[in-house]
Amino acid sequence: MSFPVHIVGAVESVADIPLLLVAPFVLLLVLIAVMPLSGPALKHWWEKYYPMVSVGLALLMALYYIGRVPAGGEAVAHMLREYLSFIAMVGSLFVVAGGIHIQVKGEATPVANVVFLILGALAANVIGTIGASMVLIRPWIRMNKIRVSAYHVVFFIFLISNVGGALLPAGNPPLFLGYLSGVPFFWLIGHVFVQWLVTVSVILLAFYILDRRSFHRMPKKLEHDIETYSETWQFDGLGNVLVLFAIVGTVFMPDEWFPAREVVLLALAAASYVFTQKQVHEKNAFSFGPLKEVAWLFLGIFITMMPALGYLAEHGQSFGFVHPFQYYITCGALSSVLDNAPAYLNFLQLAQTTAQGLNPAAFASAHDQMSSVRVLLDLQPQYVVGTSLGAVFFGAMTYIGNGPNFMVKAIAHDAGVHCPTFHRYLTHYSLPILLPILIISGWVFL
Predict the structure, then answer these.
(1) What residues make up the domain containing 42?
(2) Of 33, 114, 312, 422, whose CB is crowded by the most CB atoms within 10 A?
(3) What is the distance between the alpha carbons of residues 404 and 412, in angstroms, rounded to a whole number?
């Protein structure tokens, strides 16, 4: 992010800002995790009033900072600026992806499914996990329509909605926040590609074993028909692919160009929406509902997490996190049950504080957040690697770990696919399959 470190991290000592102020941030994240899974009455209440809850908590925090904290108004203004940059990027990707429809005829073999997931994982780095999930979940279901099962949805979430998008800032919201904070655009891919490749490959192997078993349990005649069927692909909205690449190109605009960069993103999204044929949106069942939810909730998250960032800046050294694997596991654990974007920001702040405690002289010349992150990359790059992969990889552990997860589940459910419950997702897939893969991956590479 572009705000100075002293604004968010230490505008005032933590002794002067009560630690109780972290409560609205924690409360909002707990509500996001629990309310959609509650009974019908509470769920309906949350669906109706969550914007008011999020804005109300944000307003309380903003008023406190403006009225009680020196330079608090400047801190709130800078955080709102970063929120606008975040929403402009995520929203434009979501809108443009909604104008792309892939029609697949025929049924997929296990090998074809693996190839699809590989391509989807790569695409997630270019058009984002939200964009790739929205574009590819429907053709994925149609490809496997005769034998589509819960694990098809789960592994799609594992690879395309989460793990696949760990290479570039455009792939996942936490990484884009890292880019805004000063992590160069191509820095991460140069440090994590091998670990990403191994992790994705092992997850694909687990999927292939399950899918091959399912495929060979089918009647022999049906299996033969699938293997010999000539698949036909139809691609609608080709022009929006160019718009997607234009959106990715805007991240190279310098941060000083705010708000021009955000205006360009919104203009590209608006042009895509207006000029996309109506039938393409209808085929995708496109609506602004998911984007509306992300926009309202993240407004509250960005503002209410300021005290948490400040606490980490003040007390981070006492946590004793000096090994990259600690950042990977702990940030991952939070990203599993909360949202991975704020988890990433908090641990990036912790990494800076810890590195500064180990070598304060190196940070003496850092005058803002961006330059502080650059010093961190030079001194302790594995802290950033552990934080980044923990946030992205572990977002796949539950339905609430990353925004696209619930979107994918909703689309699959509407298409008639039997999706696992929250509990079954954990006990049958993420805990016995994904978690061991992620822990071993982190242990070996970090």
Answers:
(1) 5-445
(2) 312
(3) 12
